[in-house]
Amino acid sequence: MNAKRGSRWAIGIGAGLAILLVIATLLLAAFPWGMFKDRIEARLSARIGKPVTISTMTREDRLSFHPVVRLTDMRVPQPDWAKGDGDLARIGEARVGFSALALLTGGPVVETLDLRRARLNFYRAADGRESWSGERSGGDERKGRRPALRSLTVSDSRVAYRDDKRGRSMDAALAVDGKGLRLSGKGDVRGYPVTVTASGAPILGHKAGTRWPFRAEIAGDAVGLTFDGMMDGPLDIGHLRGKVTGHAIDLRVLDAIIEAGLPGTQPVRLTAQVVRERPDWIIESLEGTIGRSEIAGHATVRKREGRTRIDGVIRAAQLDFNDLSSDEGRRKAAAKRARLGDRLIPDTAIDLRKMARTDGRLAIQADRLLWPGSSPFRSLKGVLSLERSRLVVEPLRMDLTRGVLSGRMAVDQRDGGPRLDLALDLRSARLLDFFPETRIDGGLVGRIALNGPGRTIRQAVGQSSGTIALVAKDGSIPARTAALMGQDVGKGLTIDKDKMAVLRCMVARFDVKGGVARTNPVLIDTSRAQTRATGTIRLSDEALALTLSGQPKQGSLLRLKGTVPIQGTIKAPDIQVPKEARSAKGIIKMIGDAIGGDKVPRASDADCDALARSAMR
C-alpha cells in the first residue's frame, strides 16, 4: 500500500513538473518583450554615459521562440567629450528578431535585423577615444562571437565617420537588401580626397558555415586601398581573408588606413594576402615597391594583454635608404644640412616611445643596396628583436665591395630615454673602397664600441663613451701625398703624380668619453715619411681639433717645420697651412735651410704589428 502511494506521488510530481515546464515554455514563447524597454534604455545609458531613448518597443508576433520586436525613434547620443556633429546613432525604425532560448543559454542572440532611416555618426578623438566603444574590457584582444545574423536589411540610411587621430573621414550611403550590401560615399585621408565603396553578397538565404564574399575600396590619386576577400560569415569582420592592394604618395599616408605605425617614405605600392583570425592578422605574399626599392615578405601580428607582437621576414631585392624618407623628411634633412653642414654620423631616430607596447622579431635582408653616389656597402642582413622597449639588431651584417662590417646594435629605453649600444667589427676590407679619390689602399680592419644616450644615432654617439679603431696595412699611397704628410713641401710638389709609395700601416685609435674622441694614437707610416696626429674630435658636431706632425724618412727638399693644425669637420676638414708656407719670406727661409744643410731627424719604420694589436685591443 505504501509502495503504491509512493508511486502515485512520484507520478504526480513528475506530471506537475512537466506542466510547469510547458507553462514556462509557453510563457517564454509568448513573453511581452516590450516591457523591457525601460531596462534596455537604462543599460544602454549606463554603457554610453548619456540617456538613450526609445520612443516605442512592441512585440510584433504572439507566440514564438524567435520573437520580433519593433523599436521606433531610437536615439543614442554622443559621449560628452565627442566632437562629432549630431547623435552617435539615430534610427527611425528597427525590427529585431532574436533567439529567446539563447538569452538563457548565453549563445548568439540577434538573428534578424531590419533598420530604416538610420543615421550613424562615429567619431575617434586625437587621444584615441572612440565614441562608439563605451566601457570595454579586452578590446580587440577578445575573440568575440561570430555574428548569428540570418537576415539584415538596411534602407534609407547613412554612415559618417571622422577620425582625428589618424586624419581620415567618410560620409556614405548604406543599403542592405536581397541584392546584398552596398556602401558608397566620399571622404579624405590626411586631407587627400577619396571615394569609399563596399559591397557584399546577400545575407538573406546565406548558407550557414559557408564564406561570405565582399569587396571594400578606398580610391584616390594620392592614396588607395582595396580588399577583395571572404568573411567566414556575413559581417564577420573578425574572421576574414583575401587580397589587399594599396598605393600612396607616402607610406605614412597609407598607414592612416592600415594603422601599423609606419613611417613616411617615397611613393609606395603594395599587395598581400591577408588573413584575420581575431585578434590576430597574418600577412602573406607581401610584395611591392617603395620609391625604387623592391620589397617582399610575410608577418604575423598578434595582440595579447594590451601588447602587439609582430614576427616576420622582410627581403628587398634592392633597397635605397633614401626611399625611407618622405619628400617632407628630405626637405627637413636638407635644411638641417644647410644649417649645420654635411655630417658623417646619421641623424636616424632611435626613439621607441611610440612602440612601447610593441614586441616582435623581424628578419631583414637587402640583396642590393642603392646609393646616390659611390659606396662600399653592397648588401644588408640582420635580425631585429624588440621586447618591452629594448631593440636589439643581432646578428647585423653588411657586405662590402671587399670585406664585411658585422656586429650588434641595441637601443634600450626601459629606463627613460633611449640609450644606444654599438659593437661593430670591420674585417677583410680595403681602404681604397672607402676613399677612392685619395688613391690610398691597404687591407683594412676596424672596431667600434660606443654607448651613449640620445633620441637619434647622432645624439647618442655625440654623448657616447667607448673606442673607435681603424687599422690599414700593406698598401700603397701616392708618393706626393706621402711626401707632403712628412712635411716635405718640395718633393710633395715635384714628384711625378703617378708615382706610388708604400703604405706600411695606418693606425687610428680614438678613446671616446662624453662624446669627445681623443687620439691614442693616430699614426701613418709610409716608405717616405711618418705622420702622427694628436688632439680630439667632438662627435656631437664632428668638429676637428687635431694637429699633424710629419717626419721624412729620406732627405727633404723643402721641409715645413712645426705642426699643421686641422680644424673644420670630418666631412669638411680645414687644414691650417702655416704662415711660412703661404709667404715668399717663409718659402725663401725653407730654401735657405735646405741649402744650408739644415739636418732634420729622419723617422724610422714603426712597429706596425704591435701598434695594430694595441689599437684593436
UniProtKB/TrEMBL annotation:
It comes from the Bacteria. This is Uncharacterized protein involved in outer membrane biogenesis. InterPro entries: AsmA-related (IPR052894). It comes from Sphingobium xenophagum.
